[in-house]
Design goal:
Largest sheet: 8 strands, mixed
Distance between the termini: 26 Å
Radius of gyration: 19 Å
Strand content: 5-15%
Structural class: alpha/beta
Order of helices and strands: EHHHHEEEHEEEEEHHHE
Length: about 350
């Protein structure tokens, strides 16, 4: 596997390149959330033509919630300072002090893809611990990855988890400090009203709500540090615009949508980039559009890295279990964002259907 680390070098310059960047991880999120049942007869998920993405997608597959999870993770992976600062502040309230937080995307076959997204092996070590907010010695994450995978699909296995992390299978991300080997289970919700607490979850990332404070707060009833993402052009606005573009493209089988569906000139320009590649595989389309993302936004370091598989003792509903990182496709989290969503990143470092 090739891992590509990207360092952000410049601010977002203009909307077309930023929107092209954010559309790429959104498309990847749709690809990896399509159910295995819908892919029967397809040799490889990565070989699906871009034009087929909307056809194969069931309602609910790759929905905006999944895309938001990818976007938040990629924003951290890409070194977006606005998101990193918010996460650092949230982690400090969990007694994890770091100005270089990292994100692990914890995706247990929630809707389709049966794997976690690969990461650097040194992110999850034998000594990596999950802070639950309860008294006592924090548990070691690596020891329970297989049981968490089983717990997602098999409720009968959940009582076998330690009480302090019995709800950790609900996590979307692990956020933390690799240098301290401390992590917290994190819930990412596009709808703040759907937040729910669980043993082992400590942080919740949600969009800031119009007219309400975007300050960090502790939800005592759920034992969560709630971290609103400000609704401004650096992240949420670009994310929503990118999501609308991808929605329109899927509805038109990745042909250029009608003017009435996508009237803004800059949105149509982004849509045209992907429409021209509708016959390519999703993977190739994502890779080939990197050149149209903002130039000089990122500095790339590519290298080969092996994945770390885990075998579960109890039959889990998942296939391979690995510890994740955004990597060039390269698809799963691959892509430069508008200064907030993008290709894997400058920091060592990623759905739910």
């Amino acid at each position: 596997m090739q891992v590509r680390e990207e360092k952000q070098r410049n601010e977002v310059a203009e909307p077309v390149t930023a929107l092209t960047a954010v559309a790429r991880p959104i498309i990847a999120s749709v690809l990896h959330s399509i159910s295995a049942e819908r892919l029967q007869g397809v040799e490889s998920r990565e070989d699906i033509p871009l034009r087929m993405l909307g056809v194969l997608r069931n309602e609910g597959d790759g929905d905006v919630g999944v895309a938001f999870e990818y976007a938040v993770h990629d924003a951290m992976a890409n070194g977006n300072e606005a998101i990193l600062d918010r996460v650092s502040d949230a982690l400090s309230l969990c007694r994890i002090k770091t100005d270089r937080p990292s994100s692990i995307f914890f995706a247990m076959e929630k809707a389709g893809s049966q794997r976690l997204i690969n990461t650097q092996l040194d992110l999850i070590t034998d000594d990596s611990r999950v802070l639950s907010g309860n008294r006592g010695q924090p548990v070691k994450l690596k020891n329970y990855l297989n049981q968490l995978a089983a717990a997602f699909r098999r409720p009968s296995t959940r009582p076998n988890l330690p009480q302090s992390i019995r709800g950790l299978w609900k996590a979307d991300l692990f956020l933390g400090a690799p240098e301290r080997e401390h992590w917290v289970g994190t819930s990412v919700r596009i709808n703040p009203r759907k937040l729910e607490g669980a043993h082992g979850l400590r942080v919740a990332i949600v969009p800031a709500q119009y007219g309400r404070s975007d300050a960090l707060r502790k939800d005592e009833s759920r034992n969560l540090i709630v971290c609103p993402v400000p609704y401004d052009p650096t992240f949420m606005l670009i994310f929503w615009e990118g999501w609308r573009i991808v929605q329109s493209l899927m509805e038109s089988d990745f042909r250029l949508p009608a003017d009435r569906d996508l009237p803004a000139p800059e949105h149509r320009q982004v849509a045209q980039i992907f429409a021209e590649r509708r016959d390519l595989s999703v993977k190739d389309a994502i890779e080939s559009t990197a050149k149209f993302a903002q130039p000089h936004l990122l500095e790339t370091d590519a290298r080969d890295l092996s994945a770390l598989p885990y075998s579960a003792e109890a039959p889990a509903g998942t296939g391979t279990l690995v510890a994740p990182i955004a990597y060039g496709f390269e698809g799963d989290t691959a892509t430069p964002p508008p200064a907030s969503v993008g290709v894997p990143a400058s920091r060592p470092v990623r759905p739910s259907g």
